[in-house]
Amino acid sequence: MRALFRILSLLSIGVLAHAADGDAILRADCAQCHALSGSAAGTLEALRARKAPDLFYAGNKFRREWLGKWLQKPARLRPTGFIYLDYLKKGEKADIVDAASLTPHPALASAEANAVADALMKLRTHDDLIAKEKLEPGTISRAMGEMVFDKFSGCLACHLIEPEYGGVTGPELYTAGARLQAEYIASLIRAPHAWQPKTWMPNKHLSDANIVKIVRYLDTLAKENARAQP
Ligand code: HEC
Ligand code: HEC
To answer: CA 210, CA 149: separation in Å to the nearest integer?
Structure first.
């Protein structure tokens, strides 16, 4: 018993000694690519000049648990990398995305990833937009969700809903339910330009009821996808 206490206290000293400073890591290793403060790009040129997605509203966008895991093992979110504007301009087809030419995202060790995730959750630009969304928990059948997402709203044209199925202009959405906060998803669908004035993501002027259906559908997809993982 005493030996166990000794090991536990040694372990906790070790953890304290290596306590990672999430804000410092963000400034040192992430700010060269990601905006950590400021407002979204106001012109197409500024949008195109970005090297990576904005993170100054990360705390209103991501789920904390997802951030901690993804930063240790970053899987690709945008099938064409972060170059969808160039990509669209050239008018290329989905099937010629050269995944091998895309550089992998830097990965962090567990302690650093969790410290950075905590620091990111404090970046909360646009609390006002999030406060407008009131979502009740609920479920939807896959068929009904698919109908609203693919057929009524045309979202499939730009987003993957399975690793090999859908459009490639925007980020994949088969893990979005696990990655993004429900209120963020609802708010982005309702008012994409309030988040990113120059985004390609269109406002489809969906009803509240259809926004809720899509939020629940993305949640269903993420759960199915998690089950499909090894
Ligand atoms: C060399 C540039 C570069 C550096 C350095 C970098 N990132 Fe990224 N990051 C990217 C790109 C490009 C993407 C988009 C990846 C994708 O969509 O698959 C991205 C995506 C992300 C995302 C998901 C954003 C979203 O909106 O989908 C997070 C979170 C993130 N990075 C955090 C970090 C953190 C934390 C660091 C520092 C430890 C970091 N990044 C360092 C280029 C970079
Ligand atoms: C013309 C292409 C296009 C269409 C159509 C489209 N989107 Fe998007 N969507 C995008 C792009 C591009 C982004 C990335 C936005 C950004 O980072 O500025 C995006 C982002 C998103 C995100 C956030 C994903 C993330 O990880 O950041 C969600 C959720 C989303 N779209 C849902 C939808 C839904 C629901 C519809 C249908 C109502 C839809 N989109 C229709 C292009 C599109």
So the answer is: 9
**pLDDT range class, residue 229, cuts 50, 70, 90:** low
pLDDT, tens only, 52-85: 999 999 999 999 999 999 999 999 999 887 764 5
pLDDT per residue over 192-217, tens digit each? Answer: 999 999 999 999 999 999 999 999 99
* Residue 56 per-residue DSSP state: T
b/e sequence 65-80, b meaning 16+ C-beta within 10 Å: ebbbbbbeeeeebbbb
Ligand 1 pocket, 50 CB below 6 A?
no
Helices (H), the chain: 2-17, 22-25, 44-49, 58-61, 64-70, 84-90, 110-121, 127-131, 142-146, 176-179, 182-190, 192-195, 208-228
Residues in contact with ligand 2 by the CB-under-6-Å rule are 53, 77, 84, 153-155, 157-159, 169-171, 173, 176, 179-180, 185, 188-189, 196, 199-202, 204, 206, 214
- Residue whose tokens read 């197409």: 44
Give the residue among 128, 119, 107, 110 at the shortest CA–CA distance from 56: 119
How far, rounded to the nearest angstrom, does the alpha carbon of residue 159 sit from its chain's CA centroid?
A: 13
Residue 14 pLDDT more than 50?
Answer: no
The pLDDT mean for the chain works out to: 88
Query: What pTM does this model have?
Result: 0.90
Could you give phi then psi for residue 208, rounded to 5 degrees? -55, -40
Torsion angle of C-alpha atoms 157, 83, 76, 32, degrees rounded to 10 = -150
